[in-house]
Design a protein that fits this description.
Distance between the termini: 29 Å
Structural class: mainly alpha
Mean pLDDT: 82
Number of strands: 0
Low-confidence stretches: 290-305
Shape: globular
Largest sheet: none
Strand content: under 5%
Radius of gyration: 18 Å
Number of helices: 14
Length: 305
């Protein structure tokens, strides 16, 4: 088994790298076409690529499982990705969009406090606090409203709420026994149907036949297939707090992506913020129970000692 699949920390770091690529991808895509149109074709292409690997299993799945994954996918993809993408298209910087979108770890931790049979431990709260401090240090110099309308900054917050709810729902499901490709195909197909209606309100659904549009959609396959694939894989083997807490590294890494791709200035505290966020991730991992490998989480999976 590759090292990236056997080490929780390496899985989480790979998750962050792939996840944060989406923010800079939309920074580029915003100059090519409507971000909602890009999102639609991002989902459609990803689903088509995975379909051959999931077709046999899909035909055997109970409708209840398909419905569950479709609902979770609509939250995690359509309701999470599309608002954040639209915010970037309206002028919100990638780093700030990542910051607002990735408030989901706090929402997940609060949700675990409210759900029966689950709680967030003191060490987990410490890890989340360190992660949030790292995000604020890394992005502190770039938190101005910029050129986007004020209401646009509510969109990434809605993304955070949607992802937190999807995370909590997925973590509490009984083991469905389905593979990651099949899970993603269902989620992406459901989200594609939603995006057909959402993107259709803005204009034609035909993709522009330009190199820029094609490159944008292809780049966004990284967070779609690898980012979300690793997120669900980590959630099968770890608590919701630790998995979502890894996303606190996403805003600083998104700033690095923006600096490398678009020569955007780096925030003065970016390196310090990265260190704080990494310390928070290590703290969250230290709070985890030793876990035997298993296909999915049970209801007690995020109960901490």
């Amino acid at each position: 088994m590759p090292a990236i699949l056997s080490s929780p920390l390496l899985r989480q770091l790979a998750l962050v790298l792939c996840w944060s690529a989406g923010f800079v991808g939309y920074r580029y895509a915003a100059d090519q076409a409507s971000t909602l149109l890009v999102t639609l074709w991002r989902f459609v292409l990803a689903a088509l690529l995975l379909l051959p690997f999931a077709w046999v299993e899909l035909r055997r799945l109970p409708l209840k499982v398909v419905g569950q994954q479709a609902g979770i996918g609509t939250l995690a993809f359509a309701a999470c990705v599309a608002p954040a993408a639209k915010a970037i298209g309206l002028g919100v910087s990638p780093g700030l969009a990542a910051l607002l979108s990735d408030l989901s770890p706090l929402l997940v931790a609060l949700g675990c406090c409210l759900l029966p049979g689950q709680r967030t431990s003191g060490r987990q709260w410490l890890g989340l606090s360190l992660g949030l401090t790292g995000v604020l240090l890394a992005t502190g110099a770039g938190l101005g409203l910029g050129v986007a309308p004020v209401w646009a900054y509510a969109l990434p917050v809605g993304s955070a709420l949607a992802l937190a709810l999807a995370t909590l729902l997925q973590s509490r499901l009984a083991a469905p026994g389905i593979s990651l490709p099949t899970q993603l195909v269902i989620q992406l197909a459901a989200s594609s149907l939603v995006m057909l209606g959402v993107a259709g309100v803005e204009g034609p659904l035909t993709p522009p036949l330009t190199l820029g549009f094609a490159l944008a959609v292809l780049w966004l396959l990284i967070p779609t297939l690898l980012g979300f694939g690793l997120y669900w894989l980590c959630l099968r083997q770890g608590s919701p707090q630790a998995v979502s807490g890894a996303l606190y590294l996403s805003p600083p890494v998104a700033l690095l992506w923006a600096w490398a791709c678009f020569d955007e200035p780096l925030a003065p505290g970016m390196l310090l913020g990265l260190l704080f966020a990494l310390a928070g991730l290590l703290c969250l991992n230290a709070a985890e129970h030793p876990r035997a490998a298993r296909p999915s989480l049970t209801k007690d999976a995020c109960r901490q000692a």
